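help with this.
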Amino acid sequence: MKYKNSTLIIIVSILLVAAIILLVQNVISTSNNVTFQHIHGLDYSGDGQTIYVPAHDGLKFYKNGTWYDQTEGELHDFMGFSMFEDGFFSSGHPAPGSQMGDPFGIVKSTDSGKTLEIFDLYEEVDFHGMAVGYRTREIYVFNPHPNSRMEEPGFYYSTDETETWNQSELNGLIGQPSSLAAHPTKEGVVAIGTNTGLYLSKDYGDSFIPFLENLNVTAVSFDHGDSLLVGLPQGLLSIKMDGSDQIDFKISSLDSGDVITYVKQNPENENEYVYSTRNKDIFLSKDGGATWDKIVSQGVAEQ
């Protein structure tokens, strides 16, 4: 009996060790298995613990140094992706085999994409250009064509989560828009980057003043203080809304033809920033932009 018990203990121990090895291998390979077909945005969860990236085939999450694929809910192609403090708003298209209509119009999720709440213009519009105030929840969109809620193409905003829409006049805006950002806490404050500069509005987009001129702005966002984060072909900078205290971040030289596409600050850590590029690289800084770690390289998650 003692011999049988010893044998049983050995077998159980071997199985336990094998299970632990398998678990460790699975954890180690998690990042290596995460790939990005596209990068349609990026931002932080409200607690600042997780980076969200919509990537054509669902969401990718980065937490505690590891990348994870979305495992709950359908793997939709989210476009115009915009986080707010309790979740995200998005447009886009349904996953293959989904029963959801195409396109999404505007949908909302508060459970990391597991479920979607339909808000407006369902099966009518795919908004590629959309921004939402992190705490104001004001929604700004570039509307590409007339629809049941908007009589003509143009720039529109809603202050009541799509119950009503208003068209902005865009006075003073010059160039082809490339990026859009809504202030996280200040109502009516919105920024648009174009191929001629950065423009700032404090009246819901009716009038814009040039903030940075004669520059090709490829990405823009508001930080969670009172500054704008601006991606340019030659680099990345932070500048106060009053035009003072400009910081030029020291980032790695971009490859030829590559540009910054999205940039965000952690809402709970003013020293943490993340940005992505057209070549599907993602960089993270936890020391105020002094140094950067590459966490995605050409669409493949780094270990």
The helical segments are 2-33. Residues 46 and 85 are 4 Å apart (CA to CA). The chain has one helix and 25 strands. The mean pLDDT is 91.
